[in-house]
Amino acid sequence: MNKQELIETINRKKSFLCVGLDSDISKIPSHLLSFQDPIFEFNKAIIDATLPYAVAYKPNLAFYESLGWKGLKSLEKTVAYIRLKKEKVFLIADAKRGDIGNTSKQYALSFFGNIDERLNYDAVTVAPYMGEDSVSPFLSFKNKWVVLLALTSNKGADDFQLLTSNGKRLFEHVLESSKKWGNDQQMMYVVGATKAEMLGNIRKIVPDNFLLIPGVGAQGGSLDAVVKYGMNNDCGLLVNASRSIIYASNNTDFAKRAGQEAAAIQKEMARYL
Amino acid sequence: MNKQELIETINRKKSFLCVGLDSDISKIPSHLLSFQDPIFEFNKAIIDATLPYAVAYKPNLAFYESLGWKGLKSLEKTVAYIRLKKEKVFLIADAKRGDIGNTSKQYALSFFGNIDERLNYDAVTVAPYMGEDSVSPFLSFKNKWVVLLALTSNKGADDFQLLTSNGKRLFEHVLESSKKWGNDQQMMYVVGATKAEMLGNIRKIVPDNFLLIPGVGAQGGSLDAVVKYGMNNDCGLLVNASRSIIYASNNTDFAKRAGQEAAAIQKEMARYL
Fold this sequence. Notes:
Chain A is 41% helix and 16% strand.
């Protein structure tokens, strides 16, 4: 999906909600465990219930990999299921990858290079520590995106991301350097909602890029602050909620409750658009 | 495998060689493609040929993930195959993971938490950008190791890792902060062989930790310089070679040639021990 299509989707749905599919076998409703592929059943129901309110989905690879190759199979089925929907959605592999060029190229193939186009994502999250040649292999695919970690939502973000060098903090160096690696049609940035007060400064460096904002919901960030400091003329935001939606209930009404949670967030988002 | 066992293995085999299993379906000998699981056949032959000379193996996850769930299955079979060997080897998942605590915990389960102990690794490579709580979930498993990226072997290492803050470069901050997160029985560091001249300074910060050194071989680093600046009383080094060993030949003699390459490196290593 290219930038224009993403903006159109946001305007049509009056939503910039990304639903995080952090589907944890130990947290999904127990009645699903009798299915042959419980994680896929869970994801299908969550997707069906939330699709009217979401413009993006973000499977978190860790939760699938922890189930071994069977988890990856559940994930592939989930991706194909999303792609079968008539509605176009923006699909982010939350994988935090990044390695030497020769290896990043293989990761890029994992997410963008499948000969079955239905199994490809639109974007992948990438960690910046290894620099340009660890990121650029992901940027060689047309209409595919890198979502680069800039300022993350967790406590450990303070350990290195806020170190100051030559008057700029590390995450500001990451923003400034990386915007030369790819343009705003192919680069987004992760900025945690818990750091919303920093969004004003971030917008000065990357005024036109989309930002992926985790940390609303279970992690405690505020949508109001995110919009106030982070929104641009294109909207420019994808706000992710995972646990607060997908685990709204752990009973047989889980999908309905997830839909209600997503609808409530979408309603709030519509006010800002 | 704990530190003492690793040191004993190094002394017994007179080797600190790690063989990188960057097994690429587009590079393995074509006669293997007729097998039901070509990557597994390739790995088995490489392992059998190199095991007398190697103390560690390092599958690079990207090359398996790029084949989808089937690639992960080939990898699981490879790990089980290594664990069936009578000789204990140190097994590193080269995955460069790292995410918020809740997610890193899932990644840690992927590599260390399998109920079938044969499918667990000894170590996983982790990226430091997200700080302590992205790393600590990997440190809660007994006799399991984090191999944290410090100074990598690629060109992009210069983009951020060498930025200076408060008189120290970013990779030095990573070393100094992270050595408080876990001790030298559970933390190793990645330092590229292409940066061997920096090893002297790195040893001042982490005198007792093992270092995983990629970049010898295809990337052009020198074993002599690595040993000169990086070796400590325990040896303290695992030097990785991937492509120069596993692709020494792309013909039916590939395993024999891989064994010869590994033997040549082991012979050189024995001189330093």
